Amino acid sequence: MKVRITVMRKVCHSDLMQKFENPIEHACDLKEGQVFISEDGQRPEGLCESAWGSMESFVRELACGGGNFFDGWMKDPKSAMISCNDGFRPVSFYLEALR
After folding, report:
1. Fewer CB within 10 Å, N side or C side of the chain?
2. Structural domain boundaries enclosing 66
């Protein structure tokens, strides 16, 4: 089964970046509204490996027909809202099983 992964929001905590992060030229290319399709629970090409690590188990569960995470957390039981682990620029992803 396919799972659509949509970039919903990207936040930048510039105060934390300035205080704690070493300057880096290239951190995250994801854009709000960007869509990836996972086939059979596999990481889509172009999706950040770190972000994939945060969502992989949810995507695989949805791809296998599961859902209803945390006993009714989401309005659509065949979906999940997950964010990546980047504390400086977290990205929120909406995951939804495609029927």
Report:
1. C
2. 2-97
